[in-house]
Design goal:
single chain, 12 helices, three-stranded antiparallel sheet, 16 strands, alpha+beta, 38% helix, 490 residues
Length: 490
Amino acid sequence: MYTTISSTLLRGALRIYFVGAFLLIGLLGAACLKCSNRLALNRGRSVAILKTTGWLRFTDLLRTIYSLHRLPGGLLYGPLMLLASITSLTADLASSTLVYQQYTYDRCIFGSGLVVNTTSMNWKFPPFNSRAQVIATSSQTISSLNGGEIGVYKKANGAQNFSADTNDLLGGWKCSDVLHDITFAPTVLADDVVTSLQSYGLQYNYTWHIMVSSDSGRRSTQLIALSSSKTDSENEAFEVRASIDQGYNSAAEKVMKSYHCQVSSPTQTEADIIDTILSGMESNTTISEWINGLPSLIYDGQGTPASAYSDLYISVLLNTMTMVQGGTASLLSVPGPGEDEKQGCYIIKTYVSPFIIVLVGAVALMFALLFVNWVILLFRLSFSKAGRTMKGQGGLGPIPHGLLSWMLHATRERCVTQHGGVSKGPGKEKELRSWMVGVGADGGSGEKFARLQRGKGSGIVDEGEVVPEYVVPWGGNTGYVGVQNLGQAY
């Protein structure tokens, strides 16, 4: 898929989307795990400790799997947690590598320029030295460099990203080598060369020629002959014959390669338009002027041989001549009502791999499924008998479901004593700030081990000390979540 949005901006937007989505997925996943465990405990069932890890990140998940050889989170949330972790890494790499800028073909707004319109032609022979001629020629060069077509365009404006496709073409001149090269002695004059070419049927009766230079004996170099199949008075579409001097030394033999040029169009409608344009020209007079543009196309300068692409360059000149005539040499024209206002172009767009689209949809689906599951669990909790009693004294209180909740649970387990019927310890996670891990010793063996210790303001009381303000009743109607050894976990 291609888009005009900047690749940098799009990559940034995708990163924000994935980071935000996986953050919400993590929060929802943790909430679902917590609700699922609480629902089981409310119904009097024990929960495997592997289901109380909370929603783990990728590295923590791998470490847990490696250490316990089990997938945490249970049969439902465990695979989903692993899938989310893998998808998160994949999305990060994909958004960095599968979104990039690439040149591609498109249709761009034309604006104004040289527009072929057969109803407004008023030239008998189009000017060969107009700016329209420069634009028509350069448009073909630009289109070729951008991988587009060369030919007679419906419109041209010299845009640097122009790349013509079939929608832009009326047709084009095609020049073919007649495979009849004639070699002349260096002493043969240019006029005699042209007469000889006519006698061989390689040029029409009214032939114009041009040569770059000649020596004192009038021996020519870089000779070009061009002629039309129709006279000025016939007012019909015409064909063209061209002969090109392949050498560059007046003292060497002259090899004249000849071409036959005709117009071809994709449909009869386009062919009729080009025929109308050509019929409006006085072809011989037009050829006598436009032949002056060929040397600069075919030769790289004085003393150079003819280009191997002479047939293409002759076609370019004739295409240009046709466009200038059809557009009346005006560069301020715009497409008429109902005409295509765009032209082929080769522009930079941002490519987005289909895999990215799949990832975006998969992440959205994962979030939606977790959200629906969370809502269902909340609904089941709110309507369960045990769930309703959680609001009274029969509630279970905090249950372990992640790092902080397990820290809270550990300190509460540490503080559970039957000391006057009370349990002393923190009741909220924020109260953990005053707790520490220190070194203790077994009273029997004397072996040292890490143990939880109270800090200043921790709320722990030992025998002989005053019980602080915060105590949690032990016994009575208060439930307590404790860790049990049930053998093989399920």
